[in-house]
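Narrative summary of target 7.
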Amino acid sequence: MIIRTTFIKMYFYNSLLLVSNILTLTVHTQSQDLNGIGISACGFYGARAEDCGLSDVPISKIPVNCLSIFFDGVTVDLRYHVGVPCMCNPNFNQLDKILKMKGSKRVFLLYGHTTIQEWTAMLACESCNGGTNSLDEMKGLKAFLDEHPGIDGLVLTSLEYDDDSDEFMGYSENLKTYLEVMKKSFPNLFVGLDLSGRFLIDHFTNPRIPWLDITTVDSVTDFYVVSVVFLNECTGNDFRNGIAPITASYTNYTLDKLKDVLKQASIPKEKIHFKFKINPTSDPNDSFTYCDLTMEKICLQPQETCTWCVDTLKSFNEKGNYANKYGAGFIGSSIDFNDPDNCCNCEKPFPGFNAILDGFNGVTTKPCDLLNRN
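Modeled conformation, tokenized:
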């Protein structure tokens, strides 16, 4: 009887475990398919060796939980030519390498006109002329997508007003027409909008002129990337938990403030993916280049990097929890600069990305001594 009872208990436990795994897989799949991104994604620089003289990070080394890759990016001009901003011998080797090796991951490309003034000229009267300019632009985009097959989605950039912008009457309606034309032209393409957290806080705190009505374009928008990568500059010693603090007395640009603004802007929680900076930042007056600012240097050269701004594993956990509470997922910027070789001797390589994912899933990341800067 004891053996039979034990067997029944073990069978019951294994059955529950199997059901749990099936449910987890189902939830994961639904999360991936809801807007194409999944709960956890990463930006990929892709040219560490070519631009920085550092070891390259192959696509196969990127964490399996990086469900989608975001690559920056291409622009389109008013002649509907899609390429890089300078238009001088564009090199898309890195993009093609990602597309060839992506496996089950989806690839999203940042895309757009370079300024809001160009967007204004392009959109001018799309809602009243049947999207004539949009249709012409889609021809140029189709040629690019045909040359680089495997792109799963686009993130439209530079949609925010700058200090020189005048009000664009009908902006929301014209952009909606553009998005409708894009979705009709490429029905299998996920399309999202790139929004700066800093801009959103500025605009909804003290609007200078009317901007985009999210409720107008939402029906043809799959997701929103809300970036806090540049929420603050790395100045002084205030930003010991990164440049996107949850709350702070020394800046108005906080994640607490942003969550209120997102609600005010009527951006649906289930479509928000927060983009967090997972590599260090230095004072803008320093001479460091992007290539210099790697996570591994925090651990290997603590004396030289003690003034840099970077999250702790605890604050990365908190940001993951925040993304779960106020959004559908997150994107870690430049995964290949987040200690891919585990020089910091943490539980896993890519410590920032994994700590955010832990926080999203309600898990506390194990301490990592070399990243303890207190």
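Strands lie at 40-43, 68-76, 82-83, 106-112, 153-156, 190-196, 223-227, 272-276, 329-332.
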